[in-house]
Every structure is written in structure tokens, then in C-alpha cells.
């Protein structure tokens, strides 16, 4: 049950609530609120929620009704003392934009004193004879600008380039644009567009005259495309109220507003405005067809219907005319009631129009009738290109050429919100996602710490985030990748990493591969040891003995390699139904690995083997381990990280050392590598020394062999007293079999991979 005690603090009502603010509690509150409103003239109320245990939807409705009541009298509700559960309910309902929330009683009292002390609206008689009530909007010291999108000097045209933008970037705006998942879709439905915080409306020039709209709960994630137009930046300085008098027109109202600004010393400033007007009818013009948009030809319309007209636009300095590209745009809401509460236009848009579709979107006619209105005024200090405030994205060797997907652009803008510039350089490697090194600058141009940005599919980035939470943050405390942020758009998602230990903005991060290729093996192996025996030791140092389905676990991914068997036939010339393959290079016949994959793997998928499992990276290679100038090591790309066969990562790296790194220019390079691989795969125990039967002249093979020795030693250590090589061969096959699907790899390397796979299959059958 809800109990309410009414006190006074200063001249303000203080209501102390205790108990459950549920359906019955709401009925109690409604009676108390009605009584207080009738007995107390003060419209600013303080509500103490310290003893409120529960807040339901019925309680929220009661608060909203009370808020509208006091706001209609120029007041407000100030809530304080909410417990975390009640605060969470208010946040989820979006009501902290309606109510004022304070941390405690004194803070609420200080806020209410300031709010109630705002100077009352002053009556101003315009040259037209109309009376306006004008007051400060609370942002007198804030500078406002008009941000120009596209070509403001020319009329909008379907030939103009589309600009991808988020609804949150536009705020209140007007112009020509369209909706769609990408610019191709948006280009098919271009027309007049208006946005208002979380609302956007477009009337496509497609001949149907049917407005479309978006009511966005997350404007930051809502994509739009704009050809030309403008958006209001900053906050309104004045709010003007035109009470119901004799009907006026849109033209007269604009002239009155211009006259007011001239009278208060803003004659040399253009004026941005948001107009909410009650109208008896609506008149204006729009682009009916795409050809009309291209030709700048308008179709007039008049609707003899009552409603509310939301108009966003600008009024030029006295004596100047408005460019066609900056004509105000309005959204007409048929039969809508004029909101009587709220001084924040974004708040009104959120709660009054979020679920309402406009009847029409158009350029308002100058003669449009207005019964009463509320106007927010933005004296504009400048008219500037919108690009000046937007994040400047610079791509070095962009992965998609010049056509960066619009979704990527929006993801980058969200990930680097607050930066003025970001330079993205594609890092080599990456099969399931694209990775960039990123250097960003703050608003003042200062370089910030380097980051790595990764963009991939929703599933890929989602797996990465989950793996970081479950397997990285809990185990790798130092030199681990720290996720700074993530964002998604359409079918894409992105993630940014920073790294514990990076010394500053000038730090340079390079792949482990660069160290391997450029340094003597004697210098490289200590780095390798640190990676496995120090940084990743919490993974590999805690194996668990349990049954594993090795054939199922090490079947190459059907997601990554959906046409693997098809490629085995077309790229390697292998029959999927022949059990064996002749290798004349080795004067032997070996099992056909793709026959084994097609026929044997499915049959043995449920077969269990007692073996060690543990956390493994899942795709550990030389190009997802980074080092800074101090040789701090950072591991990234955790989308495949999971519990599996503990030796998987070691075998994965061995596949790289065997197939990708040795020289392969002719058959003369292949033959000694086949003999070398044959010797390596004779090993029967993890504790045995890997054979080095190489007669070729490539020094890289010796370097790779030193790493392979280390990898098999790690595998031997992590498996304690178990020495079977079969789980190692199974993990190796998971990465040698897919070479058939690799693009741009030499046929001789594919032959080498085929032979290694066949040798491994002989060992496991």
C-alpha cells in the first residue's frame, strides 16, 4: 500500500511516498495529487521516493498525469531518493526526460529553486498586432549553428550525392532525403524530409503521395540519407508562445519572429526555428515524382483538415531571401491535439509524436493559417558545412576500394564518437572480419591512444564480445585486449580494442608475423615463449580431462568453408569417392583426406575420446598477436575462442609454418617440402623430437621448424602425461583441409596441403 505525507520545503510542496506504487497505489496518488493541485498554487513539486519499494506501469501513468498537470502551469516534478530498481524502471520507460531526477533532497531543493526562479514570459506586441509570450529557453549562453548538408547553394535534385547520416546527427532538420538500409534503397524513395529528435518523416517522390516515417527508440542507430538540407545545432535561446487570438499565417509569423530578433539586437543573424502550430487547414507543396525532384517542380496541395503542424526551418537576415535548398519543411498530423506541456522540443517529439504518422509532409505555404503556436528560436552564429562537425574518416588502402559500405561508415562514427578524426589502415590477414589499426584525434586535434578496429558480421562480432567476457577478461589480466566499444548497423557490427600497457599516442603496434619475418629465430623464440607460457598460461595451464568428440570438433567450419568439398574436386583434382591418392613425389599411396572428410568424419562424429580440453583461441596465428615498441604482447580476435581440444592452437600455428611461410616458386621447392612433411608426420608421441628431413635450400624452413619444435613441446607440456599424437593430427587437419578453399594461393601449396592432410589421415585411421 502506498502512503503519502505532504510537507513543505520553503514554498514548495514536498511529498514523501512510502510503499508500493502499483495500481492501488496509483489510485491513492491520483487523489492526493488532485487535492494538492486544488489547494496549492505552486506548480513545482518535490517527490521523495526513498521509501518506494516498487513502481508499476500504473504508477508511471499516475506520475505522467501529474507531470502534465504541473507543466501546464509552468511547473515541474522533481523526484529524488529512488532506489536502483525504481530508477531502472524510470530509465527503461524513458521518463527521466519528463521528470527531473536528483540524487537527494537538498539537490532537488536547489534544482527546484533555480527552476522556479526563471523569469516569467514577457508579453511582446509584434508589428502584426499579435501578442507573443517570450521567455528564455534555458540556453542563452549556448551558441547555435545551422549545419548544411549537401549543396545549399542549389535546389535539391535527384542527381545530388546521397549522404549517409544517423538520425541523432540531424536532430531537428529539414531538406530532401530518404529512408533505406543503404543508399541504393534510399535513392528509390527520395523526397521532402523532416526530422525531430527521434522522429523522421519523408514523402517519397514516387507518385503515391504517401508519407513514410520512423519513430526511433535509438536515433543513434537509425540510418538516414540526405541529399540537401540543414540541421539545427546547439539549443534554442528563446521560446515564444502565440496564444489563441485571431488566425494568422505562416508568413506573418515568420515576419514577427524576424522583427523580434531585430528588436533584441540579433538583426545580423539568421534565425533557426522549430514551430509547433495548431492549424485549421494545411497548404503547401511537395515533389510528386522523381522527375519533379530532378526538375525542381512542385505540386501544390491543400487539406481542409484540422491538426498540428510541426515545421523546422530558418529565417534569413532582414532583407535577404531563403535559398530553395533551405526552405522550411513541415509534417502535418491530422486531428492531433496541440501539446500543452513541455518546454523541450525533443521531449515533445518523443512523447507526443513517437507513434504518430504524419498525414502530409510539405513545404508550408506562406498563406497557411495558424490558430496558436509554440516556437523555439535559434539565433544562428554561423551557417557552416555539416562536415565541419562530423568525424573525418580517412581510409588507407580501403578494403572495398572507394565504395565503403554505408553501414561501416555509421559503425565507425559510433565507435569513435567524440573524436574529430580517425585514420584507419587495414591490417593484413583476417578471414571472417576486416581489422584496422586506428589513430584518432580528439576535438582539439590531440592524438589519442592507438586502437584496433574490427568489422565483421553480427554473429562474428557477437561471438568476439562473448568470448572476451567469458574467456579473456577473467583470465588474461595484463597485456590483454580491452574492448572499448561496439556498434552494429544492418548485418554488420564493429568493435574497438585498446590495450593495457600501451605507453601513449605514439605507440606503434605491429603483428607478431613482422617480428618472425625480420628477426633471427634466437630473438623470436623468447617472444613466442612469453606468449604461451606467460600471457596465455591461464588457458593452457589448466587442462581438464574429459570425453571429447574429436571428429565433430575438428570438422572444418561449414560457415567459413561452405564449398570445401566442391573446391577439393575443382582446385585439387581430387575425387571424393576414391579412398586413396597416389603421391609419386613420395613414391607412395596415402588415404584421400577428402574421402575421409566426406565419409569417415560423419560416421565417427559421435565417437568420444578421453583427452584434455581447455580454453583455446580457436584461430591463433601470427596476425592476431600484436606487439608495441616495448615488446608488450597483445592478443586479439577472440570470435572463435572456446573450450576445446587443448592442443588445437599449437596445431593451428603448425599448419601456417608448414604451408604458408616456406618458399614455393616451383616444383623444386615442393619436393623437399613434401619429404620434410613426411618426416614430421612420422612422430608417434608428443614427447618425441620432430624430425628435420629437409634437403632444400630455403632457410625459412629451418626457422619454421624451430617454431614447430616449440609448438609440439607446448602440446606435450599442456597434456601432462598423455603423449598421443592423434588429437594433434585431428587439430592439424582442421586447418590443412580448408586450403582447397583458399583464394590466391599457389597450386603447389595446395598440393603440399593435400599431402600433409593425407599423411595426417593415415595417422588417425
Give your account of this protein's structure.
By secondary structure, the chain is of the alpha+beta class. It folds into four domains: 2-116, STAS domain (Transcription Regulator spoIIAA, 2-Layer Sandwich); 145-385, 60s Ribosomal Protein L30, Chain: A (2-Layer Sandwich), CATH 3.30.1330; 401-505, Phosphorylase Kinase, domain 1 (2-Layer Sandwich); 512-764, Aminoglycoside 3'-phosphotransferase, Chain: A, domain 2 (Alpha-Beta Complex). The chain is 32% helix and 30% strand. The strands form seven sheets. The protein has a 17-stranded mixed β-sheet that branches. Helix 1 (23-39) runs parallel beside helix 2 (57-71). It is elongated and about 105 Å long. The N and C termini lie far apart (73 Å).
Give the averaged pLDDT, no decimals.
Answer: 89
Count of helices?
Answer: 22
User: Rough shape?
Assistant: elongated
The radius of gyration over CA amounts to: 34 Å
Q: What is the CATH fold-level name of the largest domain?
A: Aminoglycoside 3'-phosphotransferase, Chain: A, domain 2
Give me the secondary-structure category.
alpha+beta
Regions with pLDDT < 50 over 5+ consecutive residues?
A: none
Question: In angstroms, what separates the terminal alpha carbons?
Answer: 73 Å
| Main beta sheet | 17 strands, mixed
CATH C-level of the largest domain: Alpha Beta
Q: What fraction, in percent, of the residue positions are helical?
A: 25-40%
How many structural domains? Answer: 4
Seen as an oligomer or otherwise, the chain set is single chain
CATH architecture of the largest domain: Alpha-Beta Complex
Q: Name the beta content range.
A: 25-35%
Number of separate strands: 38
